[in-house]
Structure formats: C-alpha cells, structure tokens
Amino acid sequence: MLDAILSIGVVIVLIISIYYHIKKRKETGVTGIKSSLSPICFSLIAITNLFAYWFHFRGIISWGLTIVFLILGAYFTKYLLPPEKTDWRR
After folding, report:
1. Cβ atoms of 41 and 73 closer than 8 Å
2. What is the pLDDT of residue 83?
3. Mean pLDDT of 74-85
4. CA angle, 74 as apex, 63 and 27 as ends, to 5°?
C-alpha cells in the first residue's frame, strides 16, 4: 500500500513540476531548448528511478543513468537564465 502511495506521489509531483516549468517559461517569454535542459535532466532522474522501482530494474543501469542525468543536469545549469536583480533594501 505504501508503495502505491509513494509512486502516485512522485508522479503527481513530477507532473506539477513540469507544468510549473512550462508556465514560467511562457510567462517570461523564454524560447529555446538550452535553458530547459537542466530541468529535463532532473525530471529524467525521477522517471528513471520510478521505472526502475516499478519494473524491479534497480541495477547498475538505473544507477548509471541516474548519475549521467545528474552530471548532465549540473552541466547544463550554465544555460539557465540569471535571476533578475532587485533592490532588496527597499
């Protein structure tokens, strides 16, 4: 029972995070794929681990994919847009 609840929770949070990311990109008018590569890699980590759990595929391949996606996600953070500078002393 706990397994189903955790799996449903991960799927719901993953869908919400993807929706939020797309919504923020549309609000700011960002185009192109480079700034989305980091969130895509981090979402793929969750999907990989969820499939590995569902299909009992928790071996070296799922660990390897997780590490590769983590390294790629960290590498592609250089393409993220810098936050807007605001005067925090107001």
Report:
1. yes
2. 72
3. 82
4. 120
User: What Cα–Cα distance (Å) separates residue 78 from each residue in 22, 73, 89?
Assistant: 19, 10, 28
pTM: 0.81
Distance CA 8, CA 25 (A): 26
Which own/partner pairs from 6-14 qualify as long-range (CB within 8 Å, at least 24 positions apart)? 7/50, 7/53, 7/54, 10/46, 10/50, 11/50, 14/43, 14/46, 14/47, 14/50
Say if residues 42 and 85 touch (Cβ distance below 8 Å): no
Q: Are 22 and 58 in contact (CB under 8 A)?
A: no
- Alpha helix positions (H), the chain: 2-28, 37-54, 60-75
pLDDT in tens, 11-67: 999 999 999 999 988 988 888 888 899 999 999 999 999 999 988 887 899 999 999
